[in-house]
Amino acid sequence: MTSPASPIGVFDSGIGGLSVLQALRHELPHERFVYLADSGNAPYGDARGDAFVQQRTRTIARHLREQHQIKVLVIACNTATAAAVDMLRAEMPELPLIGVEPAIKPASLSSQTGHVGVMATRGTVSSARFARLVAEHGQRVQFHVQPCDGLAKAIEESTEQPVPADPMATEVAQLCARYVNALGSFGQKTGEMDSLVLGCTHYIFAREQLRTLLGPDIQFIDTGAPVARQTRRVLDRLGTLTSESGPLPAAEGQVQLMTTGSLQALQSAASRWLELPAQCCSSVQVGESSAVPAAA
Ligand code: DGL
Q: Where is the active site (predicted)?
């Protein structure tokens, strides 16, 4: 049984969904959160394939329900949403679900030049959901789509290293430069892309490098804040919002972070990006995670 006091479950292939958790905590500061990073199996989006991502999403959703009695699950991963949200809705109709999708619609409404760049994982951009989204909103705007192999992995690995003195001298920056160049011309002139959709929750943590490459005028669009507002609406409708009248909880009681991969990497990402203490983090084994090999 869930109640307003039950936690919100948040899950990603790794640390990328922390960007969504950040927006959720901002929108819902009285809620409790249980975050699961499947870093032992990341990345999902380069070559894992739908069947693997579906199996992991199912196993993790079950784990969060059974071990933590979550009242709602936020799939803070575009790749897992694309591959598994319909399956999960059909298999667990009683679990309220919120997925994330690249911000194609907001970008189509805000672009002035009518050209928008989209960076996302190969898994996301080759999905039927993504094709539908682009077809639906692609009349007014031309979307330039770039699968970014290796970028989520490089961001994931960067958390195991010390904060770099020069963020542009990193593998993350090199990959950003390669993919930005492949997309084409950014700017405010006719035919140029004036907006960039960050279609993978990891890429928000490469914002600094992308900003350096693209300059101050290109609009970056992600879905953290809209997903957080949607989560509030769902909880409100279900009558399971936590009372917002009491004092704000301390971070240690409010957020529990778990990883199937390196605990130290999660602790350093949590501290670097969310200013959360190491004691919020722990290791977890969920299903046969690391026993399942990546697809070739
Ligand atoms: N953070 C994920 C997304 O939003 C997936 C990255 C990956 O594991 O490939 O797509």
A: 77, 200
194 annotated to a ligand binding site: no
Which atom, in ligand 1's list, is nearest to the CA of 82? 10
Tell me if the domain spanning 104-221 has CATH number 1.20.1290.10: no
Annotated catalytic residues are 77, 200
**Counting atoms of ligand 1 from 1, which one is nearest the CA of 42?**
8
- CA-nearest of 23, 12, 7, 3 to 249 is 7
Rounded to the nearest whole angstrom, what is the distance from the C-alpha of residue 224 to the centroid of ligand 1? Answer: 14
Q: What is the pLDDT of residue 245?
A: 87
- For the cut 80, the answer to whether the pLDDT of residue 292 exceeds it is no
Ligand 1 centroid–CA 1 distance in Å is 31
Q: CA geometry: angle at 131 spanning 49 and 93, to 5°?
A: 65
Percentage helix, strand, coil for the chain under 3-state DSSP, each rounded to 5:
45, 15, 40
Please list the residues that pair with 37 across neighbouring strands: 12, 259
Q: For CATH 3.40.50.1860, list the domain ranges present in the chain.
A: 8-101+224-283, 104-221
Task: Kindly report, residue by residue over 233-291, the tens digit of the pLDDT.
Answer: 999 999 999 988 888 888 888 999 999 999 999 999 999 999 999 999 999 999 875 44
Q: What are the b/e assignments for 208-222, b being 16+ CB within 10 Å?
A: ebbeebbeeebbbbb
Is residue 24 pLDDT above 90, yes or no?
A: yes
Beta strand segments in the chain, E:
8-12, 33-37, 72-75, 97-99, 115-120, 142-147, 195-198, 219-221, 255-259, 281-283
Which class would CATH give 8-101+224-283? Answer: alpha beta
Give CA angle at 181 (202, 123), nearest 5°.
40
pLDDT band at residue 217, thresholds of 50, 70 and 90?
Answer: very high
R_g of the chain, CA atoms, integer Å: 18
* DSSP letter, residue 269: H
Instruction: Tell me what pLDDT residue 199 has.
Output: 98
